[in-house]
Amino acid sequence: MQEVNKLIREAAEKAKRETDAEPEPQLVGEVTWPVEVKIGKGLEGAIACTTKVGYVNGSKGWLIYRGYNIFDLAEYSSFEETCYLLLYGKLPTQKELDEFNAKLVANRAVDKAVIDVLKMIPTAKTHPMSALRTAVSVLGTLDEKAEETTVEAEREVAIKLIAKMATIAAAIARIRKGEEPVEPDSSLSHAGNFLYMMSGKKPDPTFERIMDVALILHADHGMNASTFTTMVVNSSLSDMYSSVVGGICSLKGPLHGGANERVLYDLEEIGDPSNVEAWFRKARETKRKVMGFGHRVYKAYDPRARILSPLAKLVSEKDPANKKLYETAVKLDEIVCKELGVEKKVFPNVDFYSGIVYRSMGIETAMFTPIFAVSRVSGWTARALEYLAENRIFRPRAVYTGPVKADYVPIDKR
Ligand SMILES: CC(C)(COP(=O)(O)OP(=O)(O)OC[C@H]1O[C@@H](n2cnc3c(N)ncnc32)[C@H](O)[C@@H]1OP(=O)(O)O)[C@@H](O)C(=O)NCCC(=O)NCCS
């Protein structure tokens, strides 16, 4: 594990050298509503709420959960501890972490009805994110406490969801391969058990640690589309299962979480580092977006990509095909940064290297976005809970640009 920690530390030091040394966010303190902001298309610049959950400084490439720098969390924390931090707002004591872990472990198993529904889904034609959405929806119908919408009740649901999403995603991965789902192993960590339930084999310790880091890195990221969707659904006092189903639906898209699998398809299409230059030229000519690059908020190198890049190198090294994928990715990274980085501040995002990490662990490409969801459910629920405490239903407006005085013509006269 020391090797993984060393790579994270080196990535942190590189980030320090290339950006500002220490995150010193300009905190605004109390916000007095209403605030005046300039809003762009896609709600760019809009402020929906205040939060203490996490902070992204896109121009400097900083990511902070509850005050803790992502590099420190990746090096020192675990996914379980990070979930506690996001949900409760502080790092746990050992006793609190043990209790929280025990609760997660106790909630890992899912009802047979969920597995039965998953087995009814035609896997060859269905994206695993659609299967995940369906399974979480079924899960909600089986929880008699689902309709309780106090912060305390919803936090309990959040913990159940964090625990069970990994089990469901792993079951989807196996059913897709025509294999029986594997029961959770209570002796393993969340990341280790997730890998075990996908493969049926006790995980390699390096893979377990790297999966743990990947889950930490994906846990929260500001008011991204899926987090906002989760919060919008929850703000009508719907229920946490419905809200998380909304988050899954939003994350599925290729402009959001779905980009990680598209990256792999692109890298496979490129085939070899020597083809990168020509492929990229063509992409520019045809105005094709390069998957895994660009971000609404980051206008600098994404710190999560900084961490995942050396980890992708580490895990891909043993297999020649994966090594070639990594080398192709590095070449594409260099060319895109040199051109789009300079012209448009487009740099690699979290999705660019995560796929190579998962591929090297033997995970099917279509499962990459569900892995994102297995982690991000922590950020979705943490922010939905924070907002619920002082809830006000979300209700923006649209500028109407259509006609206002159309004469109704009967159908037989049209
Ligand atoms: C993430 C994303 C949706 C952000 O979209 P956005 O906030 O609307 O950003 P914009 O499209 O306004 O980007 C600004 C400019 O950079 C270009 N750009 C952004 N991402 C690009 C990419 N991946 N490849 C090529 N050009 C890109 C845009 O075309 C635009 O150029 P223009 O000013 O000439 O029109 C967008 O960068 C994208 O589609 N990336 C690929 C998908 C991806 O990796 N998503 C995961 C995000 S974590």
Task: Please tell me about this protein's structure.
The protein has 414 residues and is an all-alpha fold. 57% of the residues lie in helices and 2% in strands. It has a 3-stranded antiparallel beta sheet. A hairpin with a 2-residue loop joins β2 (62-65) and β3. α7 (151-176) runs antiparallel to α17 (368-388) and α14 runs parallel beside α16 (351-360). It is globular, with a radius of gyration of 22 Å. The structure holds coenzyme A.
Percent strand:
under 5%
Report the bound ligands by name, code or SMILES. Answer: coenzyme A
Query: What is the total domain count?
Result: 2
Question: What's the alpha carbon Rg, rounded to whole Å?
Answer: 22 Å
Q: What's the pLDDT, averaged over the residues?
A: 95
Assembly type: single chain
Uncertain residue segments: none
* Number of H- or I-type helical stretches: 17
Dominant shape: globular
> What's the story with the biggest beta sheet?
3 strands, antiparallel
For the biggest β-sheet, the strand order reads: 1-2-3
Helix fraction bin: 55-70%
Kindly summarize this structure in a few lines.
This protein has 414 residues and is mostly helical. The chain is built from 17 helices and three strands. The structure holds coenzyme A.
Any chance you could write out the topology, listing elements then pairs?
Elements: H1 2-18, E1 54-57, E2 62-65, E3 68-69, H2 70-76, H3 79-88, H4 94-106, H5 112-120, H6 128-142, H7 151-176, H8 190-199, H9 205-217, H10 225-235, H11 240-251, H12 259-270, H13 276-285, H14 303-316, H15 320-344, H16 351-360, H17 368-388
Antiparallel strand pairs: 1-2, 2-3
Helix pairs in contact: 1-2, 1-14, 2-9, 3-17, 4-7, 5-6, 5-7, 6-7, 6-11, 7-8, 7-17, 8-9, 9-14, 9-17, 10-11, 10-17, 11-17, 12-16, 14-15, 14-16, 15-16
Coenzyme A binds at residues 255-256, 259, 289-296, 340, 344, 346, 349-351.
